[in-house]
Each structure stands twice: as C-alpha cells, then as structure tokens.
Amino acid sequence: MFARDPEFCARKRNRDGGFSSSMLRDDQQDELRKIFAAQRRLGNPQASEDSVGKPRRQFSTR
User: Fold this and answer.
1) Which pLDDT does position 6 carry in this prediction?
2) Best label site of 8, 9, 37, 55, fewest CB within 10 Å?
3) CA-CA distance, 11 to 20, in Å (whole number)?
4) Which residue segment(s) compose the domain that 61 sits in?
5) For 16-36, what is the mean pLDDT?
6) What is the pTM of this model?
7) Is residue 26 domain-resident?
8) How far is 8 from 13, CA to CA, in rounded Å?
C-alpha cells in the first residue's frame, strides 16, 4: 500500500508545486477497493459493494 512504499516514506507532503509525493488517482481507487474488500471479509456490514461507489466517485472528480 502507498503508506508503506519506501519511495514515499521520507516525504509525506508536496512542496513548491512538485507532485513527486502524490499518489496516482488509479492507485488511490485500487487501494480503496482493497480496503473495502478487506472490510467485507471481516464482516463490516457498511462496506458493501454499493457503499464503495460514493468514495470512488469523490476521488475520481477531484
């Protein structure tokens, strides 16, 4: 996952207009799918297939 990627460990934020520490939108959406899938496996009733749609749309429009 992004938070554990050694390439991004030293620097958490972007500065001076550079986006080298930014996560790609596709990677964000993939991680979101994985998080919701894990929550479903753990029995979280609020992590349905339908519930992932709203955050996914929010990520894709920003």
Assistant:
1) 74
2) 9
3) 9
4) 22-62
5) 80
6) 0.57
7) yes
8) 9
Write the CB contacts of 28 (distance below 8 Å, at least 6 apart in sequence).
Answer: 2, 59
Amino acid letter for position 48: S
Q: Compute the distance between CA of residue 12 and CA of residue 40 in angstroms, rounded to an integer.
A: 29
The answer to whether 52 touches 32, Cβ cutoff 8 Å, is yes
Count how many domains the chain has.
1
Q: Retrieve residue 61's tokens.
A: 């429009």
15 found inside a domain: no
Q: How many Å is the maximal CA-CA distance in the chain? A: 43
- DSSP letter (8 states) at residue 4: G
Q: Residue 59: exposed, middle, or buried by beta-carbon count in 10 A (0-12, 13-18, 19+)?
A: middle
Residue 17: count of CB within 10 angstroms of its CB: 5
